[in-house]
Amino acid sequence: MISAGLLLLAWELYATYSGIRATILPAPSRVFEQAMLNREALADNAVPTIRATLLGFACSLSAAFVLSMLVDFFQPLRRALFPVFIVSQTLPLVAVAPLVVLWFGFGLAPKIMLVALVTFFPMLVALVEGYEATEAEIGQMLRAMGAGRWRIFLLARLPSALPYFFAGLRISITYAVVGAIFAEYAGAAKGLGIYMLNAKNNFRPDLVLAAVGVSAALTLVLFGLTVLLQRLAMPWERADRETAGKGAWR
Amino acid sequence: MSRLELRHVHKAFGGLDVLADISLSVGAGEFVSILGPSGAGKSTLFQLLTGAEHGEGEMLFDGARLDDHGRHFAFMPQRDALMPWRRILDNTTLGLEVQGMRRQAARARVAPLFAEFGLAGFERHFPAQLSGGMRQRAALLRTVVQERDMLLLDEPFGALDALTRTAMQRWLEQMWRHHRWTALLITHDVREAVFLSDRIYVLSARPARIVREIKVPLPRPRSLGGDAARQASALEAEILDIILNPNPSKRTRP
Ligand SMILES: Nc1ncnc2c1ncn2[C@@H]1O[C@H](COP(=O)(O)OP(=O)(O)OP(=O)(O)O)[C@@H](O)[C@H]1O
Ligand SMILES: [Mg+2]
């Protein structure tokens, strides 16, 4: 927080006193001013980005969840599928984004696909490794109690995966926003990505930066939501840090 | 009459012989300990009994072959295996829930036992909020409420500090006198084995075989003073000697 403030201050001072032109590096105050003046256009363009981010993320999340369960129940699937997904992660977005737009048009579909492409594998890996982090003793104990595989999955493996799931979620949600903007950059009717592109072409770096600010705020809000969600879903995490009841050994 | 009977049980992991030849029995209402060095294969024996692994040899319960279908054992793993995400009350009802009991009914069944297990007031706590000794008692409560034919306890107090461990041993001895569970306990604490057991099987290092079977003739309740305590110390010394000098003939060699 403080470091971000200092950085902004340094930037402001540099932009004001170095004599650099505002069309190259606008001062933060100017960016903010222009953002306020253009807030309707910015908001208008943020809506499709948010929609693409959330829809794409929802798709990849459901797909990752279903597939992670299949992989957990049929281990050979893992060796069959993972190489494909790993390759999918090495595709450079710069090359893929225009192609996907070329094939699927300027609508919502290519954005959803790109967001899903960048977030799917991290979520899948997080879930699969989370299941595997289940304490072996808990599994053995449940089996001795008479629980079947499905029961063990629900009672032990799924809850064990929660910390991994949320770690993956926090990382993926930031990828998701970047993915959506990239997809729009490659071609869209509306969206923060295409807004940035147009602003750049009109020599308005202040508006590019204003859009960057909006996307950063959007990412922060989504990130905060995942943290909040984790708090709600894992109440025992906070209990870990409290010391109630310690030291009674009799 | 013996409930559990093992005859010449053998187990290898790949090329690693873990259990060489294990024959033992546990009678109804009897408290039996398996005492052996770390890595001998004690936990592996419980894996065979709970069906997590398969070995060779005969395993009988009440005279019938032990297979995966008969659920005779309530098993307490070496680490307490409490689920961090479940409150203590819901951890202790786990076995009943798996058996198909409704959560409310299971809670009603377990709740009255919390006082006896020294956990009253901690029903709504998470495991991380409990001390080591309390966690072990919660794990033990989760084990006994399953009301299976026999308890399998894998080093229940191994992770506790000495003071807590002694307190827990006394508490368990008292609980056992009250409930008379049929129990098989794994430990590498000689004093614990002598204090709690009716009989002790001493295992060799890996590959494990039974070196000696020792009856513990001490009266119950087990006391900590007087004649019985001297007898206990003598027995402990004898067992230690067996474990530390497995080949008496070699002792005199230079
Ligand atoms: N699933 C497994 N696969 C391969 N080796 C195993 C497996 N389980 C146990 N072992 C090996 O069997 C040996 C005995 O292990 P075990 O856990 O039974 O020892 P233990 O007597 O319970 O030891 P401790 O007192 O330290 O708990 C060890 O050498 C271990 O590496
Ligand atoms: Mg062990």
TrEMBL record, chain A:
Keywords: Cell membrane, Membrane, Transmembrane, Transmembrane helix, Transport
Coiled-coil ranges from the UniProt annotation: none
All residue ranges annotated as the ABC transmembrane type-1 domain in the record: 42-233
Subcellular location: Cell membrane
GO BP: transmembrane transport
Membrane topology category: Multi-pass membrane protein
Matching Pfam families: BPD_transp_1
Source taxon at top rank: Bacteria
Family membership noted in the UniProt record: Belongs to the binding-protein-dependent transport system permease family.
Protein name: Binding-protein-dependent transport systems inner membrane component
Automatic annotation (TrEMBL), chain B:
Entry protein name: ABC transporter related protein
Domain of life: Bacteria
UniProt keyword terms in alphabetical order: ATP-binding, Nucleotide-binding, Transport
Listed PANTHER family: ABC TRANSPORTER ATP-BINDING PROTEIN (PTHR42788:SF2), TAURINE IMPORT ATP-BINDING PROTEIN-RELATED (PTHR42788)
Keyword ATP-binding attributed: yes
Protein source organism: Mesorhizobium ciceri biovar biserrulae (strain HAMBI 2942 / LMG 23838 / WSM1271)
Signal sequence range: none
Cited SUPFAM superfamilies: P-loop containing nucleoside triphosphate hydrolases
Alphabetized GO MF terms: ATP binding; ATP hydrolysis activity
InterPro entries named in the record: AAA+_ATPase, ABC_transporter-like_ATP-bd, ABC_transporter-like_CS, ABC_transporter_ATP-bind, P-loop_NTPase
Domain ABC transporter: 4-230
Similarity remark: Belongs to the ABC transporter superfamily.
